[in-house]
Design goal:
There is one protein chain. This protein is mostly helical. The chain is 88% helix and 0% strand. Helix 1 packs antiparallel against helix 2. It is flat. The chain starts with a helix and ends with a helix.
Amino acid sequence: MNEALFLFLMFISGVMLAALYLSSLWFTVKCIQYTEKPVFWLIISLALRMLLLLTAFYFILKFGHWGHLLAALAGFVMLRIVSTSRMRHQLSAWDFTKEKRT
C-alpha cells in the first residue's frame, strides 16, 4: 500500500515537472518576439529547462528506484501528450483570416 502511494506521488511529481517545463517554454515563446537576441534567450531557456528537468529526474532515481523514475516519466509524458493535443485542437479551431485582416 505504501509503495503504491509513493508511485502515485512520483506520477504527480512528473505531471508537475511537465507543467513547469511546458509553461516556461510557453512563456519563452510568447516573450521571444520582444527581445533583440531571440536565439540567445531560446538557448538559455532550453538550458535552464533541461537542467531543472534532468536534476529532478536524477534525484528521483538517486533516492528511489527505477520504478519511481518510470512513474515520474509517465506523468511527464502524459501531460505533454494531453497539452500537445489540446493545443493542436485550439490551433485548428483558430480563425487565422481574422488576424490577417487587422
